Amino acid sequence: MDQQLPEEPGASRQRNDWGRNMLSVKGLMAEVGGKEILRGLDLEVAPGEIHAIMGPNGSGKSTFAHVLSGREGYTVTGGSVTFDGRDLLELEPEERACVGLFLAFQYPVELPGVNNTYFLKAALNAMRKYRGEPELDAVSFMRLMKDKLKILHLDDSLLKRPVNFGFSGGEKKRNEIFQMALLEPKLAILDETDSGLDIDALRIVADGVNALRSPERSMIVVTHYQRLLDYIQPDHVHVLAKGRIIRSGGKDLALELEDKGYGWIVEEEAAA
Amino acid sequence: MSTTTQAQTNGVFDAWVADGGDAPAGPDWLQAARRDARARIATQGAPTAKAEGWRYTGLRDLMQQDFQRVHEPVSALQPGDIDEALIPGLDAHRVVVVNGRYVPQLSALGTLPTGVRVGGLHAMLQSDPAALEGRLTQIAGAGCHVFATLNTAAMDDGLVLLLERGAVLQRPIELIHLSVGMDEPRVAQPRHLIHLGDGAQAEVIERYLSLGDSLYCTNSLLEIELGRDALLRHRRIQLESPHAFHITGLYLSQGANSQYDGVNIGLGSAWARTDLVTRFRGEHARCDLSGLYLAGDRQLVDYHMDIRHDLPNCASSENFKGIVHGRGRAVFDGLVYVAPGASKTDAAMSNRNLMLSENAEVDTKPQLEIYNDDVKCSHGTTVGQIEPEMLFYLRSRGISAPLARRMLCLGFAGEIIDALGNEALRQHVAEQVGQRLEQAPV
Ligand SMILES: Nc1ncnc2c1ncn2[C@@H]1O[C@H](COP(=O)(O)OP(=O)(O)OP(=O)(O)O)[C@@H](O)[C@H]1O
Ligand SMILES: [Mg+2]
């Protein structure tokens, strides 16, 4: 990935001006329902990088994703999150989306009665408005949607249905990536987008994600399965346990985890 | 009720039925019915706070007003004046009633198919009273609440729609009730009669609107009779001044195998009370009532239903949804009665409410009185809030919280709005609901 980044001196100086990293999480601590879940989480994500986060059930992966996207009910009790030079934690959820953060939900929410096309248009136009761009006219919008649907091999009948309502598990996950393709975020967090996908769908989703890779776009991919990482090659792999990143490495770490599980790292961490 | 109370309440309603109007006396049978109604007003009086059917419907504000009867027709309005009241793209035979008077020069009937008669009630009472006999005042009959009795006694003008056996209306009849503010608060009491002969089919779009935001009362009454195999689609949109009081009594009598498909949209006025009353005269008839109401700050919306299954093999359904915000109040009171002989009755009732504020209030009371075991009856009510995870999902896609709430409210209401069928009407109502929600402090 790194060699794809701009190499001319001007570009790198510009990067240094606002800090190398797109996302900088320092000592993040958060509670939910009075329970401490994140206990000093550190993570640095540079533009264009893909980070995989793995870790046992209940270790706080989704909590981390929700805290980043500003979901209510989570109390940040310590640490900081800087996104593109801004204090992310200061922003409302919709502002976070507008500055380029996207969360593909582990459990996409069904919205009965809310038409998918209307929803996508509202989302896209909200972001364009935030950036001071005019709303897309109906024709350009439909053309854009058709293009993105093709990437995800989605049937356009889904557009006429209520958002996620009655969608199969796999359709819901694909609909998340479809939204990501449409909204073109700077940083996407994919929370177990691979769970519940059949082998073909996994391929399609991974291809979709790879098509969206660019030197400016970063991704945090939360997964339990090393297989996804065969399709979406990460730059870094992290293990999140008990609310902290306890081990980071390259793609090999994922293979090692697949082989040996999490127990050994958690033990090593406890002993250290 | 004591004699003194009777005297008082009688006094309260004197102005509602004051003489001096241009209403034709009509034939003997009608005069008798109206004399009878006048006599009943005295004994009925105004419902007390404890009266069955009025417990949650505060009458104080209404009774405090000094409503005067409208006698003079509004003649100043020109066709262009009602342009803002028209729905773009709605292709219909239009009948306009202003302050309770049928106004031919504002109406646009167009060409009617054979077997269809449309006209003003007062005019028809003079030209062809026989066409109304046995129907007018008979379908609503006795046993109605005092406001229906008042309407019978006063009987302002209204629509008469008569379809002969087998007649089919291709385009809907649009009945616009327009209220124009006067110097002092007025009460208009329009009276409508719809009769569909055997196998006849029609759609009626009934709209209540105000020019301006004045204080007035509309006390309307509809009598609807469906012959065997007849089909009536009835859409009712109430969107009045925030200071208006609104009362509707809809009395429906259905012949064998007939179908009534009614959608009620209640969006505006200070205080609104609607009674939907259905009786089946033949088997295998079906009555579907659905509704959407929006009660904003200090508004009251009240729907009462009284569906009586005396005969076997009939079906009825009520599906009402409400959105209540600010200090709005909604009342849903649905009574379905199934008589011992009414085997194979199919009755389903549902009332779901979305509360947008802590001070909003809903009183929902489904009542199923079933005296037969061989029936299929169900009812369900819910009172809930916007789901936080739905709201978050929308916001996480960049949509502002107020717009996200509106989208979810419209999503909730969508099922009923879609039931309107007619695309121009559907769009109009969706826009109006959206606008009301936009004004709501959510
Ligand atoms: N509202 C809540 N109240 C109390 N505890 C909560 C609440 N929400 C989440 N938790 C707890 O927080 C912990 C972390 O949950 P989280 O969903 O972040 O785990 P995860 O790493 O995503 O797990 P999985 O791999 O199963 O998706 C869990 O123990 C969970 O039970
Ligand atoms: Mg999770």
Automatic annotation (TrEMBL), chain B:
Gene Ontology annotations of biological process type: iron-sulfur cluster assembly
Q: Which Pfam families match?
A: SUFBD_core, SufBD_N
Which part of the chain is the SUF system FeS cluster assembly SufBD N-terminal domain? 28-174
Residues forming the SUF system FeS cluster assembly SufBD core domain are 186-412
Instruction: Tell me the SUPFAM superfamilies matching this sequence.
Output: Stabilizer of iron transporter SufD
Family to which the UniProt record says this protein belongs: Belongs to the iron-sulfur cluster assembly SufBD family.
Output this protein's name: Fe-S cluster assembly protein SufD
- Which organism's genome codes for this protein? Thiohalocapsa marina
